[in-house]
Specification:
Distance between the termini: 38 Å
Largest sheet: 8 strands, mixed
Number of domains: 2
Helix content: 25-40%
Number of strands: 18
Number of helices: 16
Bound molecules: 2-acetamido-2-deoxy-beta-D-glucopyranose
CATH class of the largest domain: Alpha Beta
Mean pLDDT: 93
CATH architecture of the largest domain: Alpha-Beta Barrel
């Protein structure tokens, strides 16, 4: 049996073949493309009862992350069809043998996500073999395995074609994010969980939760219990336990949760609970820089967050600060004069003090790019700058020695419905950054699902499939990425259909974001 080594993109696109009524797509239909893949031409079979074997692992799975991940994988594979056939005596796959080297299951920035997946061609007592440093690498291997499983409509069992498989894989960037915004529209827990589920299908690993903004303050903060008076309604709120549930749900799927409070600009809603945070009732933003109370509240929120959000970073916003209310409100303008500050000094002062508070809670800080553009040299060296406005920013950030996350709005804002999947795919975080030591400072990227026009009714189809295009850009090595998006259109269309089969409302691929299916035809041609 000779393996066909896959190289380059050309071989990666394998056209669908119509057989009877079913569209069987054979060959390499993995998304995102693994770092290294080779495969053969034999077929293996399995039915309902795949086994998980772990006896050679150091990892003891006390928390059940591996076992849960395995049974979720079985559910996901078998969710699309009823399996009621019998497995032939030869060529049966009995299960997956997983070996994990690391003892602990701590998840944070930089956790090892690499894995190896070997599927033999046949033999008695055949098990696929997975090797990973951490349980989170093994979860990625399960996802890859699930994408290789194909239902056979004649035998009504599952098959794996093109065995033996040898996949050696790991992410290109350690930070692969998706932003959700629960201030512009409240997102119920089951919807956030569905988004997390679908993130794991594309190997994204950071849910950036933009919890609070000027429109509403939906989360409970025990230190300042009136803040969530800024929620839209009684029921549109998250308790501390709800937030913990989100973090835990994400963690066991290998996804970190990055919490954001956006100060001092996007904070009107804070004042419904504590009106003294407003410069004036008719001029409610930014937070009143002259009041110690503003910083006490921030400190309280971050101490509450520290008990919930264990990710190494917290996001402090800092974008779009309009200081007019500071200069036009008499008590603040008096305070500015006394402190020999103009409005832009006060903006700097606020952001730097907020950073110090976050650092005192043992968080490293992410700020939107305006902070860097206005006073980059004054920021804590532990700052990560989150690009959004335009191009060329990451280049300047890493040249200054700070770290960067890329989300340029022209390509990676999901609320821009005219941003195409091709643009999502082709947006390269390291463009114009050539020095290896500067490339390392680009932690990765994030696609942003701002909430002005999405709620529970349309968030999934606005996120998917475009976010998946960016997920491959962030996961796969540069040599495996297409130089022309047409080269991956068939494979991405296949993945979009897979999302639909798994119950994710991913919109048609072709056309604008959140499109409706343009004509009656196969899923693959929408
Ligand atoms: C257990 O961990 C040690 C130390 O990392 C490693 O050398 C060994 O190979 C591991 N054993 C297994 C079975 O994973
Ligand atoms: C800044 O805020 C003031 C006061 O709320 C408002 O009148 C002005 O239009 C704002 N400027 C911009 C550029 O949004
Ligand atoms: C504010 O004051 C600083 C010096 O403290 C000065 O560098 C800056 O140009 C001033 N900005 C404006 C908008 O006047
Ligand atoms: C890279 O540099 C070129 C030439 O200066 C410029 O046109 C382009 O916008 C830059 N790309 C980014 C992402 O900054």
């Amino acid at each position: 049996m000779s393996l066909r080594e896959m190289s380059g993109i050309g071989a990666a696109v394998v056209a669908g073949v119509l057989v009877g009524f079913s569209l069987i797509v054979d060959g390499l239909n993995l998304w995102p493309m693994p770092a290294s893949v080779s495969y053969g031409s034999r077929t293996l079979y399995f039915s309902k009862d795949l086994q998980l074997r772990t006896e050679e692992s150091n990892y003891s799975d006390v928390s059940g992350i591996l076992k849960d991940g395995f049974s979720r994988m079985i559910d996901v594979i078998q969710t699309t069809h009823v399996v009621d056939g019998n497995v032939p005596s030869s060529g049966a796959l009995h299960g997956l043998h997983v070996r994990i080297f690391s003892l602990d299951d701590e998840l944070n920035f930089g956790t090892d996500e690499t894995y190896k997946l070997f599927i033999p061609e046949s033999g008695d007592d055949t098990y696929a073999y997975i090797e990973a440093q951490t349980v989170y690498g093994a979860l990625h291997a399960f996802e890859t395995f699930s994408q290789l499983c194909i239902f056979n409509f004649d035998t009504r069992i599952y098959e794996i074609h093109s065995a033996p498989w040898k996949i050696v894989d790991g992410p290109r960037f350690p930070y692969r994010g998706l932003l959700i915004d629960t201030s512009r529209h409240f997102l119920p827990l089951p919807i956030i969980k569905k988004v997390i589920d679908s993130m794991s299908f594309t190997k994204l690993n950071v849910l950036h939760w933009h919890i609070v903004d000027r429109e509403s303050f939906p989360i409970q903060t025990p230190s300042y219990p009136n803040l969530w008076k800024g929620a839209y309604s009684y029921s549109e709120r998250y308790t501390v336990d709800d937030a913990q549930e989100i973090v835990q749900y994400a963690k066991i799927r290998g996804i970190n949760v990055l919490a954001e409070i956006d100060v001092p600009g996007h904070a009107h809603s804070w004042g419904f609970g504590y009106p003294s945070l407003w410069p004036a009732v008719d001029c409610p933003e930014p937070l009143d820089v002259s009041k110690e109370f503003a910083f006490q509240v921030l400190d309280g929120i971050l101490s509450d967050f520290k008990k919930i959000f264990k990710f190494k970073f917290v996001h402090l916003g800092g974008d779009e600060v309009n200081t007019t209310c500071w200069t036009t409100t008499p008590h603040i303008s008096k305070w500015l004069k006394e402190h020999h500050m103009n409005a832009s000094d006060a903006y700097t002062y606020f952001v730097l003090r907020a950073q110090k508070i976050a650092l005192s809670h043992d968080y490293e800080v992410i700020n939107w790019e305006e902070t860097f553009n206005n006073f980059g040299e004054k920021l804590s060296r532990k700052t990560v700058i989150h690009n959004w406005l335009g191009r060329g920013v990451a280049e300047k950030v890493v040249a200054s020695g700070l770290r960067c996350i890329v989300s340029n709005q022209d390509k990676w804002y999901l609320d821009h419905l005219d941003a195409t999947w091709e643009g999502f795919y082709m947006n390269e975080p390291l463009e114009n950054i050539t020095k290896p030591e500067q490339q390392k400072l680009v932690l990765g990227g994030e696609v942003c699902m701002w909430g002005e026009t999405v709620d529970a009714s349309d968030i999934e189809q606005t996120i998917w499939p475009r976010a998946a295009a960016a997920a491959e850009r962030l996961w796969s090595p540069i040599g495996k990425l297409a130089t022309n998006p047409n080269q991956v259109a068939t494979r991405l269309a296949h993945f979009r259909c897979l999302l639909n089969q798994r119950g994710v409302a991913a919109a048609p691929l072709f056309g604008l974001g959140r499109a409706i299916p343009p004509h009656q035809d196969s899923c693959m041609r929408q």
